[in-house]
Amino acid sequence: KGNGMIGNIYSMGLALQALEATRKFYAPRKWDCAQAFSVVYSHDYHQPMAIAQVLPALVGKSYLDAASLHCTASTTVFSTLQPEPGTTGVHRAPITVHYSIINKLQGKHFKFTTSVQVPEGSTLLKVLQKAALKKPNIFRFKVEQTFWGPMVVSIHGLAANPDDRTYWQFLSGGNALQEGVGTYKPKNGEHIQAVFSTY
Fold first, then answer.
1. Is the dihedral of CA 38, 81, 187, 127 positive or negative?
2. Is the pLDDT of residue 96 over 90?
3. What share of the chain in percent tops pLDDT 90?
4. Strands across the sheet with 141-146, in order?
5. 199 among the known binding-site residues?
6. Can you give the residue range of the structural domain that contains 39?
7. 100 lies in a domain?
8. Residues 35 and 108 in one domain
9. pTM
10. Statement to judge: residues 63 and 98 lie in one domain
């Protein structure tokens, strides 16, 4: 993409590794690697799998280099990948997030919208939890834990199904979110849509 994103934020680590590992096999061409690294540097990674994939690229290596590495004790800390100190006891102002669930794909179609208040800096998962507490018969949902964090597999009793190639896609302003519900932090007044989709 024009801003340096390759796929989405989760694929960036492997994409940068692949470009680095295969650069000598391609004819010279214009590639602004700095843009891609800028995307990685500006993202606050929290998921262990994402960190494991992006870290080799940040140190100029790939998984292919692992066999030739000589491990020694090191005190190097990558501060850009360290989570921020806990905010326990710190009051964060509430924000309002608008949340819709939409199914125009299977069975009885539906569209429901609600607004919830969560502390500023809360993840999208917190928004879903608040909506489910407010109206459990409408906004109930289920998640499964993955290496990439929690993945929403069912909303309003409608479950994603790999056989049908269906899933719940989260959008903001009509654009797919580049992060999962466990890491994406909505802004005040943002409208998040969960749309039952197919791939």
1. positive
2. yes
3. 49
4. 141-146, 149-155, 158-159
5. yes
6. 11-68
7. yes
8. no
9. 0.61
10. no
Of 26-35, 47-56, 117-126, the range with the lowest mean pLDDT is: 26-35
Q: For the segment 156-170, what is each residue's pLDDT rounded down to a tens digit?
A: 999 999 999 999 999
What CATH number is associated with residue 113?
A: 2.170.130.30
109-128 pLDDT tens trace: 999 999 999 999 999 999 99
What is the SS3 assignment for 91? coil
Query: Do both 103 and 194 map to the same domain?
Result: yes
Q: Where are the alpha helices (DSSP H) in the chain?
A: 12-22, 33-42, 48-58, 124-134, 136-139
Q: Are residues 101 and 192 in the same domain?
A: yes
Q: Is 53 annotated as a binding residue?
A: yes
Q: Is residue 78 assigned to a domain?
A: no
| Within-domain flag for 3 | no
8 appears as a binding residue in the annotation: yes
Residue 177 counted as an annotated binding residue: yes
> Does residue 84 form part of some domain?
no
Whether residue 139 sits in one domain with residue 50:
no
| Residue 34: φ, ψ to 5° | -60, -35
User: Are the C-beta atoms of 170 and 176 separated by less than 8 Å?
Assistant: yes
Both tokens assigned to 13:
């680590």
**Rounded Cα distance, 120 and 118, in Å:** 6
